[in-house]
Fold this sequence. Notes:
Elements: H1 4-21, H2 25-58
Amino acid sequence: MLEEKQLENVKQILGDLYIKHGLTEEVVRLSQWIDEVVVKIQKEKYMTMEDKKHVNAKK
């Protein structure tokens, strides 16, 4: 999975592409992909936090 720093780099590149080329189909597709990755990362982090809560509650 992408690390936070890598994701920030991808977001910066996306912003640079938007500034340079405007709102092209490719920029939109990349933006949508980034959104999907961010949501997946957030869900995984949330699930990990929930798992830890359940483990700690059992102690």
